[in-house]
Design a protein that fits this description.
122 residues, mainly alpha, de novo design (two linked rop proteins), 5 helices, 81% helix, 0% strand, elongated
Amino acid sequence: MSPIENSKPKYDLEERTLNFARRVNNFVNKLPKTISNIENGKQLVRSGGSVGANYIEANESLSKKDFIMRVKISRKEAKESRFWLELSQPIEKELPEKQALIQETNELMKIFGSILEKCKIV
């Protein structure tokens, strides 16, 4: 392993948010096709994907102020995703996945909050 590969952190938030968006898409595809699930699912897919998209934008930001704004948006989108997840009405066997996705939104919000706290210190 080269020194560069060694220095790369094991934990990649871009990859984690991409996996979250994929899991959200899979979850929404399994929801019963009721009017509320269809409409709430559309919103969930948008907010779930936006978490990672805004984090990628943050990493490409041109200034610290832009970085902070994008991370705040990522945190906001994670919170919105949690809202739409709470409204979803999956079949019984998909309830554990719903809870796992809600847990992931909580963890992502904490991670983004921690990043924002560290930005205040610097």
